[in-house]
Amino acid sequence: MAMKPWYKIVTPREDLREGKPLDASEFAVHLDHVRDGRAPAVYQNPAEFFERTFLTKNLSELTAQVVRRLSGVKVETSAIFNLSTQFGGGKTHSLTLLFHLAQNGDASKSWKGVSGILQNAGVTTVPKAATAIFVGTEFDSITGRGGHDGTPLRKTPWGEIAFQLGGEEGFKLVEQHEKELTAPGGDVIERMLPKGKPTLILFDELMNYVSRSRKSGLASQLYTFLHNLSEVARGRDNVVLAVSIPASELEMTAEDQSDFERFKKLLDRLGKAVIMSAEAETSEIIRRRLFEWQGLPKEAIATIEEYEAWLQANKQQLPSWFPVENAREAMKASYPFHPSLLSVFERKWQGLPRFQQTRGVLRLLALWVSKAYAEGYKGAHKDPLISLGTAPLEDPLFRAALFEQLGEARLEPAVTTDIAGKDHAHALRLDTEATPELKKARLHRKVATTILFESNGGQQRGEATLPEVRLAVAEPALDIGNVEQCLEALTDSCYFLAAEKNRYRFSFQPNLNKLLADRRASVSTASIDEVVRKEIQKVFGAGTGLERVYFPKKSNDVPDRALLTLVVLAPENTAPEPATKNLISTMTTESGASSRTFKSALIWIVPEDATTLLEEARKLLAWKDIDADSGELKLDETQQRQLTENTKRAERDLREAVWRAYKNVFLLGDDNSLRKIDLGLVHSSAAGSLVELILARLRQEDIVVEGVSPNFLTRYWPPALPEWSTKSVRDAFYASPKFPRLLKPDAVKDTISRGLDAGTVAYVGKAADGGYEPFVYKRSLGSNDIEIAEDVYLIVRERAEEYVAQKAAPAAPAGATQPVSGGGAAPSGGTANPQPTGILRGVTPTSTTTTATSGTSEPPPSTEIAGFQWTGEISPQKWMNFYTKVLSRFATSGGLKLTVSVDVEPPGGTTVSKVEETKVALRELGLSEDVDLKHR
């Protein structure tokens, strides 16, 4: 639902609507005035005061702990609280709240928020307490108080506090200390405090009194008194001291600073430091001064609810200081302002020397509201809230008021060059060039303006964090991810913006971007091309599973192998160009002067566009050029760190540019034409490597597979082949586009092995007599023992069963020939792999008188013999096949004895250590480790 613009829900005062300046006088309250009844009704009336108070997290915790302590509960609380507060009188507001509770006790239960305080405190009633207030700006030790109104004259803080707690009797306890201007000790203070009754003592504006009383010695005595009073309070169950000292160095002298540190250390050591907030009070002051304010309009609730839902949904990406769980209350307390706008003065600006708190901020916001109202009704903008990013920096009068508060007029070039004030300002230009959504939201300008306010304008090393920027500029209708996009664009463009690890700040000193702009123009085309190609090879070199070929120019640059190969085209060979597709088609079908056999083995990866790649490489080279000259450029530590980070970011951007550019995959389709697969918008977080991403996509469509089932082979068995060689089987997966591509060629061995176990296929060699030797069927054969060769074949189940039946038939008559299964002649066919050579010697027959002689004559096939012996040399590469094809059939029947003779004599000799390793291996196998050494 579209949110109404703020200016259609609330109305600025007449002078602002007419564009007239506002005289924003200060509005403040004094704790002494609350005590003696002189404060405005909103502060004087406790019920009304609580009704208008927004209990922030810190204020709730402070109040709950004070109530606990006054109730006599010492667990999870303290007797002394040091209140550090900032803009808008938050400290006085907090002390006033404590005063009203202590003064009214259980009568406060009906006030808004008190039930929650009691719940947090873990008590059921608010204890009524004796109270004393000392306000440093009010109390004067020269004239003192009383003496002419029937009360004793008090000129010291301890005299005033003793009188407030115990009247004249209480004052008499410290009367001598009053005369001698000496702080009382703990024993006197113990008697001065009411016995058995909760006591609350409030100190406000302490440093003001210290600064004025330093020469008289009372400042030093006040330190002693506060120290002694704190020690006594810590020993009592129901006494609380709440002390407010300034939280900034605003207008402090060196002596003030020294005393400030002394008091702060004392209070922090003996008690608990608490940072308060005054958001609700500040907002009320501002809204009453700037608007015709009659309370929060009902129409504003819709906007607040939209923001509340958005804040809850994105709370993990927002700053921890923002009370997301109380977002509705925070929005109600600040509307029509965004909460971060009002809080920035409290969080950041309070440390600026010229910051004038309420008066200055009201003047600034008056100009702001007046300008925003006029612009809104001109139809220019429809902002639902007045946020930091909407500050009218283009207005010279507003900029002057801003720089007055910041105390830094030198920011004028930064604002007008990078944000607004000139038509060509970087933020304005980026908004003009942005997408319609960002352009309409003026997001670059809002982000830059927010950084200016959050980073204290360069006065201190203030910074705007990424979560703070998100909170200030993002809206329910806007994608929060756009904030990072704008920050990156601003960081790359602005001349006065510094960025370090998601922290940003504007300064009056130019940054490295100006240097970058100059260096980019001098980078050579050749160096850009070299860097781009190296980065492409680096990106595609990550991950495993594929062979890589980079930037081929002709077909013989791409090997013709039965191996899945990723071919990466050069950046200039872009997918939209017709010449690129022609190049791919030519190199897919040709391999030099010959036709390519393994067309399906090629996976082509092609860039969509190289423009971004080249620009990112140019930027990276420019940063490296600056880094090489950093000594001569005399960069400071911060700039050097930024240079290092910018260089790393440029390297990352170049890598991401490779991911984004190489989004097109080409391969041979089922119809033998080129097929294109668009990977879409990809980035490095999508997978461990770009190769992994490509493989994952190809696996999804079963274009690339880890392996296939044995049944796949039988389904696609070539009808014309009774026997299919294992080499041809493997090659088919890389030659035929109808077959899926095997990620690893050896995967076909596993398929064959599983097929043998299941009886789907048989693994055979061809014997000289026309039979099969070896013949492996329906029994296990490890994938490592399977040979991929032209003379090793697979046959289908039916043919294998037919062969088994033939072997089981009765023996043929004498003189007839018959294939022998199991121990006949050596396999024939193919001479590429030498066969073992040796002599077969027969063993005496058991049922006939036929005797075999040395390799010259064999018994008839049907003759039963006792066994045989064979001796010969075997190539080391054939050892496993020898066992599989020759010996495995006898391994389980018993009676197989192996005698091994090993002669190891490498051309270059071997070492004693390797012989020792051999002995260890023999020992582990339970064999003799006697080895005859040969000496040179």
TrEMBL record:
Ranges of compositional bias, category Low complexity: 808-820, 844-857
Segments of this protein annotated with the region Disordered: 808-867
Entries under Pfam families matching the protein: DUF499
InterPro entries (alphabetical): DUF499
Superkingdom classification of source: Bacteria
Protein name: ATPase AAA
Originating organism: Chondromyces crocatus
Lineage, highest ranks first: Bacteria, Pseudomonadati, Myxococcota, Polyangia, Polyangiales
